[in-house]
Amino acid sequence: MSGAVPTATRFLVEWYRPDLTPQSTDDLVADLDRATADLSAEGSPVWVLMTLAVPTDEVLYGVFAAHSPDVVQAACIRAGAAPERMSYDVDARITEHFRVGSSGPPPQLAV
């Protein structure tokens, strides 16, 4: 048996939320964090890698890593937010400059 760790697949989950606010986003992310921690502790590893809110489109996206879409769905349901759409084998990147621990602040935008 090799000591290799199996690679998790990434999933994109979409929720449509009228009246999406920073508070409602924070609340859902906190619920997702609790649900994924609980499922992981129970032996079904799942992680929320990032969320992206687009209030003008009334949509919230979440990128998850897990070995099964069923585990992602279970985490969302535990958080009270069943996925309205889920895409499989998603590839996501964060620009190097904006990663946690990168040197210097992000560039300021002129208004």
Automatic annotation (TrEMBL):
Protein name: DUF4242 domain-containing protein
Lineage per the UniProt record: Bacteria, Bacillati, Actinomycetota, Actinomycetes, Mycobacteriales
